[in-house]
Amino acid sequence: MSVPDEIRLLDERDPLRDFRDRFVAPDDENLVAYLDGNSLGRPPRATADALAGLVTDGWGSRLIRSWSEGWMDWPLTIGDRLAEATLGAAEGQTAVADSTTVCLYKLLRGAAAMRPGRDEIVGDRQNFPTDGYVVQAVADELGLTVRWIESDPAGGVTPEQVGEVLTERTAVVTLSHTAYRSAYLTDLPAITELAHRAGALTVWDLCHSVGSVPLALDEWGVDFAAGCTYKFLNAGPGAPAFMYVRGEHLDRFAQPIWGWMGHRRPFDMAPGYQPAPGMRRLLSGTPPITGLVGVAEGVALVAEAGIERIRAKAVELTELVVRLTDQWLAPHGVRLASPRDPGRRGAHVTVTHPDGPALSERLIAAGVIIDHRAPDAIRVGLSPLTTSFSEAYRAMAVFRDLVRHARRCG
Ligand SMILES: *Cc1c(COP(=O)(O)O)cnc(C)c1O
Hints:
Layout (H helix, E strand, L loop, with lengths): L4 H8 L20 E2 L10 H14 L15 H14 L6 E3 L3 H14 L6 E5 L4 H14 L2 E5 L9 H7 L4 E7 L11 H10 L3 E5 L11 H4 L3 E4 L14 E4 L43 H17 L1 H23 L5 E2 L11 E5 L3 H10 L2 E2 L1 E3 L3 E5 L7 H16 L1 H4 L1
Parallel strand pairs: 1-11, 3-4, 3-5, 5-6, 6-7
Antiparallel strand pairs: 2-8, 7-8, 9-10, 10-13, 12-13
Helix pairs in contact: 2-9, 3-9, 4-5, 10-12
The structure holds pyridoxal-5'-phosphate.
Family: Belongs to the kynureninase family.
Function: Catalyzes the cleavage of L-kynurenine (L-Kyn) and L-3-hydroxykynurenine (L-3OHKyn) into anthranilic acid (AA) and 3-hydroxyanthranilic acid (3-OHAA), respectively.
Subunit structure: Homodimer.
């Protein structure tokens, strides 16, 4: 399908256009567009080489000596690189380990324990399911009550809504920065300030922000944060997540999964847990070295591209998709379910249609990989390092042709 000059020009002028070639080209003739990089980022070519190198060199040749030759420090050194490239955080406050789910549990449990006597947690009912489960689990475990905010599924949590439930009983406020459903960008600095004024701590989920939206965790006063590396950081399926703990909290912070890798002296093999100083106390078991290889490569690409340029392209890509939604899809019953203001929108665009599930299936069958979110939403993910303007345009044209017939086909 041909693409208009206007769109081709956007690609020609894109300062990040060459990054596409730094990723493995899919061996799939049917593929028109991959618009799910916000769920599983594409593999950098460098990762294939680095993983092969790990097998032959570090693991294959240096064998167990590699632990003392660097591997032991990877969760913290790679965490520091991630912090510098994407979080706006100084070193010594970030570790890469576990899944986001486990990281959220560790942070929330530890944060709640730092506010003894307070018996409420504030959460968002529309947040990603795992976040809600973890909030409820920690609340049940500690005998706390959850004050759920009912946010707009096509928007997100506002500072006003947080203000309504914050009291002197609130121990922790835990929310996502970018809403996984709508891509709504929550006003993180304002909500963090509100929480602090009420004497509460904050735990932020950054899964859909890290690697797509510039962050300034140190400057914004964030207490704790966690997020995925396999989305916009392209670290690979199941790659370990990251945790951020504000430096001033570290000495007093205790996480609940005590393991030998978070111990002050793991190789003493001593009974009795003593947490390591600094971020190492966030670790529990043996670091996932194969997964950390992918994190290091993904972070290096984002650092090279620059988060400000990534953000600028995300805004342009989502603006294009919103414009084509209005022009081509809205007349056929497709509704925008993401913010119109690009300043309040992350790097995906969500639309809804009564035939959402069937349309999603047909889009994927036609080579446009999006994802479906029950009951009627379709998420169009626009990962600036791997998505071109032409690719997004072609995908939207396929969408237009399918939705024209959606009603007739049932
Ligand atoms: C993707 C995502 C997760 C995923 O958690 P895992 O433990 O990696 O499965 C959690 N929370 C949010 C908001 C997400 O977008």
